[in-house]
Amino acid sequence: MDELAMQNRSERKYGLLNYSVYVISLGGFLFGYDTGVINGALAFMSKTSQLNLTPSRQGIVSSSLVLGACLGAFLCGKYADKYGRKVTIRWVAVIFTLATVCCALSLNYIFMTTFRFILGLAVGAASSLSPMYLAEISPKEVRASNVNKNAIFIVLGQLVAFIMNALLGSLWGNWDPIWRVMVLMACVPSIILWINSFNIAVSPDWLVQRGHLKRARNLAYRLGFKKQTANRNIDGRKKNIKTETKLTWNQIFSNKRLVYLLLIGIVIALIQQVSGINTVMYYGTILLEKVGMGERGSLYANILIGLTSFIASIFGTRMIANHNHLKMLKIGLMGNIIFLALLGVIMHANMLPQVVTNTLVLAMLVLFLANHQGIVSPVTWLIMSEMFPNSVKARFMSIATATTWITNFSISLVYPLLINALGTATVFFVFAITNGFSLFLSLTVINQEKMEKSYQESSSK
User: Fold this and answer.
1) What is the domain range of residue 149?
2) Is the Cβ–Cβ distance between 119 and 96 less than 8 Å?
């Protein structure tokens, strides 16, 4: 009875918070689905009877979403500060829905590229807004767990995309326009996000910035913040409202602590993408076809990859929450180096029977993705969501996330050309080297003590 009573009290305490967390995390789900669905849909839309995409056009179609995400992530902070996190995520859901429908109805390569770019605006905005929003509405004791739910939902969205690709490709693979159905399925979660966005909690931090202190205090209590902690935080920031709302870029760049945090945020965002993770997420089916798995076999192999990544993200995020974040980042990067190097060796050797090669390639891809999606990706989002002071959080988070997408765009654009020019094995060796460079940066440039000191001093001014 005592345990049941405690559980009921916990549910009442975090009821609004839990509801809001799962709704906001749908932004991460859409981020995952829309970046993952191209993996299977690209092979079908590339056919002569459809959009007739060459390797260079495949790169442009895939990277057009990423280019849009760069802009969406960069602009998101401005609108999130002006109109609020809640209103912004509602408009993100609208863009997701309309752009998805237009992509599914595209008649040629130009239309697809244009609408994928517009869809990218929503993807980029969601990738920046969701982790920041989750961090702002969550009490300290559940903050890491709630921010990590967004990372889990990203991988879940990719897994669902892989499953839908495989099922639709298997059942109606002879019908070339099946890729339109694959793409259109993203409308379901985007509509759910829009409907439920009306009932989620506003960010207490944003209310404080706008001077609504009483409303922010009451909302913080409903979200489960301890009264003493909420009162101390709000009263402490009450003195800084004018400074926080009027902080200009000139003031930011004249503050060495803020400049340092911004640069480290950009470095961490860069580290996340130069791993090569999205080349596998976007081109996995084509990659597996190149090593001889066939169209249907490649689609089903992606389900295994996605499922493993999803399970790894659940266990990885729990582990990250209880350990030093920067140490976990270094461990994850070492794992990336090992698995990518082994993947390159296996493909380069080319002396094993085809069945053995296929099995080993799939195993290394699974291990690489599990390691990255379980450790590297969630820990980078978690660090970025926590490292910036409230006065500049939305703007700095936008810049860091835009860096993520700019790097993603560059890699996804040139990847098909690199594969054709260098071969698959050599490209994976290249990504093993880029992960080594990331590990070097995490060991030499990122200093946790300096980050914490810069955060505290910037927040207190």
Assistant:
1) 12-201
2) yes
